UniProtKB/TrEMBL annotation:
Residues 125-165 form the Peripheral subunit-binding (PSBD) domain. InterPro entries: 2-oxoA_DH_lipoyl-BS (IPR003016), 2-oxoacid_DH_actylTfrase (IPR001078), 2-oxoacid_DH_E2_comp (IPR050743), Biotin_lipoyl (IPR000089), CAT-like_dom_sf (IPR023213), E3-bd_dom_sf (IPR036625), PSBD (IPR004167), Single_hybrid_motif (IPR011053). Its EC number is 2.3.1.-. Its cofactor is (R)-lipoate. It is an enzyme of class 2 (transferase). The keyword Lipoprotein does not apply. This is Dihydrolipoamide acetyltransferase component of pyruvate dehydrogenase complex. It comes from the Bacteria. Forms a 24-polypeptide structural core with octahedral symmetry. GO terms for cellular component: cytoplasm.
Length: 426
């Protein structure tokens, strides 16, 4: 018997532990190398942990709900049974096999499904755990075939199924005949849905940030006319040459990074009574998820990236965030954050600081407006593209002079984009 202790892998520089949510494999079950064996939650992200070897799980050392320390054993796998088990493993379980095997769902076996191998609405196989959840929650074969898997090889994970069930159930009205203690006001027809884990985490962090940091917000109106023309002239070029969508976000990030290089007092964090001055400029970028939640992946050393590299980073992180494919390292090390609320048509906002950072910018929608401009013939009224930028900052360590001057510098860079951007490299 070749017993191997499986170690909890490193999940990021600042992550020292994780909470075990669910064991996807139980003692006595065979696991392939690189197959997910458990789901864990850190203070930054929920993720799945793969097995580094193939074999049979002999013992689970950290139970569900307990803390798994990075670098410590979480289970024991017998790799010597790999060959024997491999020869006995049945063919992958298909949707038809699963549902035909259960009498309570026999009426679903005649539903048509896309080929499980086509990578679209089907899935090569589902685990016994998924089968059990589907039976308990009355998820039909047709419903299951529409769920897009986010696991290895497009495998449907427990999280995928639970997310689907949560969204489906939220559409059903919950009776509110009586008010339970502490429930608040509920009216006929109200829908009551418990916050998911990510929303609870966001709620806690937002409350903590407002409690810890006295927020001050400054505003400025920026002439974005040259930025709009610049992007219009390049977006087709980016699409054809680099296969990348060219949005305003990388331009906004680049201007922010340049201003942070000028005002290093904004690129700091607070640790108790200590101020940490950061050398790296790591920009957090708020991304809205399909679930309605918000996540802030980080572009590390943004000041050292070209406009093309920033564009690629923005698109990559945004896409992986919406597909739940971010890694813990993608969420670490942010020194300043931005939010492009203009993508929702918002004029301006007062965002909450991501702790322990001391500032966050919100870029509003770009709108055409009549404006007074100075020309060689004197003052004239012209149509210009305008945008409001807001800067929320921690008044414990950032006063109005620094917070306002930094905001003005970001605006200046955007208004004079043609003076500093390198077009020839594109």
């Amino acid at each position: 018997m070749a017993l191997t202790e499986i170690i909890m892998p490193k999940m990021g520089e600042s992550i020292m532990e994780a909470t075990v949510l669910t064991w996807l494999k139980k003692p006595g079950e065979f696991v392939e190398a690189d197959e997910f064996i458990l789901e864990v939650a850190t203070d930054k992200i929920d993720t799945e942990v793969p097995s580094p070897i193939a074999g049979v799980i002999k013992e689970v050392l950290v139970k569900e709900g307990e803390i798994a320390e990075i670098g410590k054993p979480i289970c024991v796998i017998d790799a010597s049974e790999n060959q024997q088990i491999n020869s006995e493993i049945p063919s992958p379980v298909s949707f038809q096999d699963v549902f035909q095997a259960n009498d309570s769902l026999a009426n679903l076996t005649d539903l048509s499904l896309s080929n499980p191998e086509d990578g679209e609405t089907g899935n090569p196989w589902i685990s016994p755990l998924i089968k059990q959840i589907c039976l308990q929650e009355n998820v039909s074969q047709r419903e299951l075939s529409t769920i897009k898997g986010t696991g290895l090889n497009n495998r449907i994970t427990k999280k995928d199924v639970l997310n689907y069930i949560a969204i489906r159930n939220s559409k059903h009205t919950i009776s509110s005949g009586t008010l339970s203690q502490g429930a608040g006001m509920r009216l006929p027809g109200d829908v009551v849905t418990e916050m998911d884990r990510m929303r609870k985490m966001i709620s806690e962090r937002m409350v903590d940030s407002k409690r810890v940091a006295p927020h001050v917000t400054s505003f400025i109106e920026t002439d974005m006319t040259d930025v709009v023309l610049f992007r219009e002239n390049l977006k087709t070029h980016f699409k054809e040459k680099y296969k990348e969508a060219f949005t305003y976000t990388p331009i906004l990030l680049m201007a922010t990074a340049k201003a942070l290089s000028d005002f290093k007092g904004m690129n700091i964090s607070v640790e108790g009574n200590f101020i940490v001055q950061h050398d790296q400029i790591n920009l957090g970028m708020a991304v809205a998820l399909p679930t309605g939640n918000l996540i802030v992946p980080v572009i590390h050393e943004a000041d050292k990236l070209s406009l093309l590299e920033l564009t690629q980073k923005v698109n990559d992180l945004s896409n992986r965030a919406r597909l739940n494919k971010l890694k813990p390292a993608d969420l670490e090390g942010g020194t300043f954050s931005v939010s492009n609320i203009g993508s929702f048509g918002n004029i301006m906002g007062t965002p909450i600081i991501v702790q322990p950072q001391v500032g966050i910018l919100a870029f509003g929608v770009i709108e055409k407006k009549p404006a007074v401009i100075t020309t060689k013939n004197g003052d004239e009224i012209a149509i210009r593209s305008k945008m409001y930028i807001s800067h929320s900052y921690d008044h414990r360590v950032v006063d109005g002079s620094l917070g306002g001057s930094f905001l003005k510098r970001v605006s200046d860079y955007l208004e004079k984009i043609l003076d500093w951007v390198e077009v020839k490299e594109l």
